[in-house]
Design a protein that fits this description.
Elements: H1 13-16, H2 19-29, E1 33-38, E2 43-46, H3 48-54, H4 66-69, H5 72-75, E3 85-90, E4 96-107, E5 115-121, H6 130-155, E6 160-166, H7 169-193, E7 201-206, E8 209-214, H8 220-233, E9 238-240, E10 243-245, E11 249-255, H9 263-279, E12 285-287, H10 290-311, H11 313-316, E13 317-326, E14 331-342, E15 348-349, H12 355-360, H13 364-385, E16 393-397, H14 413-420, E17 427-432, H15 433-436, H16 440-452, E18 456-462, H17 470-474, E19 479-482, H18 485-488, H19 494-509, E20 513-517, H20 522-530, E21 535-537, H21 547-555
Parallel strand pairs: 11-12, 14-16, 16-17, 17-18, 18-19, 19-20, 20-21
Antiparallel strand pairs: 1-2, 1-5, 3-4, 4-5, 6-8, 6-11, 7-8, 9-10, 13-14, 13-21, 14-15
Length: 556
C-alpha cells in the first residue's frame, strides 16, 4: 500500500498531533482569500491567497482597517460585518476587484472579542463549502482542547466537552429553509455564549450542532450546572423573521480522562453521549459515562424531593437529640439536636444524605430556621414539664449561609432568636469549621451579639479540615467539637492519641472545652479518659433519640 493510499487517520500522523499547524496549513493552501476580522473592523490575519488577490506583500494586510479595502458604499455602512454577497475591494495598485463575500461568526462578544471568518472569492477559484468551514473550525477547536488537556494534566484537573444538538434540526430546515436555520443557529450561539465563562470555548461544529469546552476544574457537578444553564437558555421563544418558534436541544457530556485523554477521543465521547440523550427524547442530557448519568439523575430526583419536603417541613422532617456525656461522672450535661428526613422511599435519612445537597441548593437557611423553632418549642415544653431537661445545654448546627444578614425571616440571626425565646442561656450554636474559614472578621460582631443574648458558640468539624486558629482568638467560642477519622482511630493509633492530646491542651489554654463526637466503642472511650478529655458524644452512650425517648433515658 502506498503512503498516499493509507487508511484515514494514519497519514500525516505528525500533523494530526498538531491541529493548529494543520489548520494553518489548510488555510495557507486554500485557493480563495480568507481573513479573520475583529469587532474593531480590522483584519486580524489573512491567508496568502487574499494577499495575492489584492496585490499585497505577505503579512501587509494584518491590522489593516476594512475601510481601506472596501468600496465607499460598503465601508460607509453603519455596520460593516457581516460581509455578504457581491462587492468591490481595492487592489494595492488602486484598481477595484469584484468579489463575493461570505462571513461566519466564529466568536461572539459573550466569550471574548467578536470575531468573523470572511471568505473572499473572485469567482475563479470556486467557493469554500460549509463542510470545509466546519472542518477548519473543528481543527482550531481540537487545538484548543489539546491545550486545555495539557493544562488539566499539569493542574490535576479535568476538561469537559458539552455537545449541544438542536432537536429536529432536519425538520426545521424543511420548514424554515436555509435562511431561517441560519437565524436560529446565530441566536443559539449567542444564547449559549451568555451562559459561559470567559475561559470557556464555544464553537459551531456542524449543522445544528455546537460544542462547548469547559476548562479549569470542570468537575461533573459544575458541568451539570453549566448544562442546566444551557438548557434553560432554550426556554424563551426564538424570534425569527417568519415568526416565533420554540426549540429544544439535546446535550451530551464527556469528561477527561475517563472518557478520553486526547481531543479526538473526548470529542467522539461527547458525540456518543448526545446520541444517547436524543434516544431518550427531546431536551434530554446524558453523560458518556452511564454510571455518571445515573448518578446525576438520582441527584436531580433527590433535589426535587428535597425541595418539596422543605416546603412542608413538619410533614417530612423530625428532630432527634443525642446526649453529651461528662466522662468522669457519666452524667448527661447536654444534647445535640440532629435533623432526620422521612424520605419518600420510607427510610429515615441522616443529615449526611441530604444536607450537602440542601447547602448546594441554598436551602439550608430555611431548614436551619425550622430546626431552631422546633428546638425552641421543645425546650419550652421541657420547661413546663419540670423534668429538669430544660437545664441541659442544647446544641444546634447552623450553616454558614444562615449567618448572613437577613436570611432568618428577613432578620439577623440574633434578632430571630431574641424574638423566638426570651431566655437563650441553654442554647449552643455549632458552626462548621470550614464554614468560618475566611469569614471570622465578617461575623465577629454577630457572634458577640449572640453571646450577649446568652447563646454559647461551638466550632464543629475539628479533625475533618484544616483549622484556622484565628477563629478561637477572635471569636467568643466556648466549645470545639472534634470528630472524623481522628476520633474513629483514637483507640487504635498512638499517633491519633498524641495529636488529640496536643489539640486538647491547645483548646484548654484558650479556655475552650473539647467535645469528642463519634465515640462508638470502649477502646475510644478509654483512650479519651486517659487523655483527660472531659466531654464526649456517640452511640456508645446513646443513639439520637426522639424527645419522648430522651425523657425516659434521662429519668432511667
Amino acid at each position: 500500500m502506498k503512503s498516499s493510499d493509507s487508511e484515514p487517520g494514519t497519514q500525516s500522523a505528525n500533523l494530526s498531533l498538531l491541529p493548529a499547524s494543520l489548520a494553518s496549513l489548510i488555510v495557507d493552501h486554500l485557493p480563495m482569500g480568507i481573513m479573520v476580522v475583529g469587532s474593531d473592523d480590522r483584519v486580524k490575519i489573512a491567508n496568502p491567497a487574499l494577499h495575492r488577490l489584492l496585490g499585497y506583500a505577505s503579512g501587509a494586510l494584518a491590522r489593516i482597517d476594512l475601510a481601506t479595502l472596501l468600496d465607499s458604499n460598503t465601508s460607509e455602512a453603519s455596520q460593516v460585518m457581516p460581509l455578504e454577497g457581491e462587492g468591490l475591494v481595492r487592489h494595492a495598485d488602486d484598481h477595484q476587484v469584484a468579489v463575493t463575500f461570505k462571513s461566519y461568526q466564529i466568536q461572539s462578544k459573550g466569550v471574548g472579542e467578536e470575531l468573523w471568518l470572511v471568505i473572499v472569492s473572485s469567482g475563479d477559484e470556486g467557493v469554500l463549502g460549509a463542510e470545509a468551514i466546519f472542518d477548519l473550525q473543528k481543527r482550531i477547536l481540537l487545538d484548543r482542547i489539546q491545550h486545555a488537556l495539557l493544562r488539566a494534566d499539569r493542574n490535576e484537573s479535568a476538561v469537559t466537552l458539552l455537545c449541544v444538538d438542536i432537536d429536529r434540526f432536519g425538520e426545521l430546515s424543511q420548514v424554515l429553509g436555509a435562511s431561517g436555520c441560519d437565524e436560529i443557529q446565530h441566536q443559539v450561539y449567542d444564547r449559549i455564549s451568555q451562559t459561559l465563562r470567559a475561559e470557556d470555548t464555544l464553537a459551531r461544529v456542524g449543522n445544528g450542532r455546537f460544542l462547548v469546552v469547559l476548562d479549569n476544574d470542570a468537575i461533573p457537578d459544575k458541568a451539570h450546572v453549566v448544562a442546566s444553564r444551557v438548557q434553560e437558555s432554550f426556554d424563551p421563544p426564538f424570534q425569527l423573521s417568519k415568526g416565533r418558534t420554540l426549540i429544544t436541544a439535546s446535550l451530551g457530556i464527556s469528561i477527561s480522562p475517563r472518557d478520553g485523554d486526547t481531543p479526538d477521543q473526548l470529542l467522539a465521547s461527547s458525540y456518543s453521549a448526545v446520541q444517547s440523550a436524543r434516544r431518550r427524547g427531546p431536551g434530554q442530557l446524558a453523560y458518556h459515562d452511564r454510571l455518571l448519568t445515573r448518578r446525576m439523575r438520582e441527584q436531580q430526583k433527590l433535589e426535587f424531593e428535597l425541595q418539596n419536603a422543605i416546603l412542608e417541613p413538619d410533614r417530612h422532617f423530625s428532630v432527634l437529640y443525642q446526649p453529651q456525656i461528662e466522662l468522669d461522672t457519666g452524667k448527661c450535661i447536654g444534647v445535640e439536636a440532629l435533623i432526620r428526613w422521612r424520605h419518600p422511599g420510607g427510610d429515615l435519612m441522616s443529615p449526611g444524605g441530604f444536607l450537602p445537597q440542601a447547602q448546594k441548593m441554598g436551602l439550608l437557611p430555611r431548614l436551619d430556621r425550622w430546626v431552631l423553632m422546633q428546638v425552641i418549642n421543645q425546650w419550652k415544653n421541657w420547661q413546663s414539664f419540670g423534668y429538669g431537661l430544660e437545664k441541659l445545654q442544647v446544641s444546634v448546627n447552623v450553616d454558614q449561609q444562615s449567618l448572613d444578614q437577613g436570611v432568618m425571616s428577613a432578620l439577623p440571626l440574633d434578632r430571630f432568636l431574641r424574638d423566638a425565646a426570651p431566655d437563650l442561656n441553654w442554647l449552643t450554636l455549632e458552626i462548621a469549621n470550614y464554614g468560618l474559614q475566611g469569614y471570622v472578621r465578617e461575623h465577629s460582631h454577630l457572634f458577640r451579639r449572640l453571646t450577649q443574648l446568652g447563646v454559647s458558640l461551638a466550632v464543629d468539624g475539628i479533625g475533618n479540615d484544616a483549622v484556622d486558629v484565628s477563629i478561637f482568638a477572635l471569636l467568643p467560642v466556648s466549645k470545639a467539637k472534634v470528630n472524623g477519622e481522628l476520633v474513629a482511630s483514637l483507640g487504635q493509633r498512638a499517633s491519633s492519641q498524641k495529636l488529640m492530646l496536643s489539640l486538647s491542651r491547645f483548646m484548654s489554654s484558650l479556655e475552650v472545652d473539647s467535645v469528642l463526637v463519634g465515640i462508638e466503642d470502649k477502646e475510644a472511650e478509654r483512650a479519651a479518659r486517659k487523655l483527660g478529655i472531659r466531654f464526649a458524644q456517640g452511640n456508645l452512650f446513646s443513639p439520637p433519640l426522639p424527645p419522648e425517648d430522651l425523657e425516659s433515658w434521662i429519668c432511667a
